[in-house]
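## retry 2 of 3
previous attempt timed out at serialization; input unchanged, resubmitting
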Amino acid sequence: MEQGPDEFAAVAAEGVHETEINRSRFRCALAPVADEDDARAFVARVRAEHPGANHNCWAYVVGADASVQKASDDGEPGGTAGAPMLQMLLRRDVRYTAAVVTRYFGGVKLGAGGLIRAYGGVVGEALDAVGTVRRRRYRLVTVTADHQRAGRLENDLRAGGRTVREVRYGAEVEIELGVPETEIAAFRAWLADATAGGARLELGGEAYFTG
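## retry succeeded, writing output
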């Protein structure tokens, strides 16, 4: 199984931060996105909300391993807007996030260096203002137990701070949860001890949860 990074950051919800630099307004909108289609839709929505802006520059990073990285200067001099926005997202270890900086020109030219600082800076400020959450990599595991044991077992798991995803009731009870890869062996030993060997453990794929 190919492993992604142990953790990364993402914005928890949409948010906006605005600043003024030499009479130009820079408005950064951030949003969590599940995939590239989500990111493109968010860019289009912000652009539609600000048709009178001089520029709607954007950048987004999708994938736990940042496999998708896209950016646009939207008419600003090449490399002065989208690239510094993207670099700020990557420097902050941010994934599954889109940023759109809407600029209303105030009459004073900033020069290439000024633009790079402005576009990168407003994304950094927006990340601070909106806030990010850490997403950690877990291995999905399914614990199967009889009904007699399952209730107490679920309580013990939650009390121990485990991330229980789902509980399915059938002939037996299946409890799906996330366990960090490094804790699988210890978890297996704990489970055998807690249920006197009466529960089965099945390993699944990996997923990222907030935590």
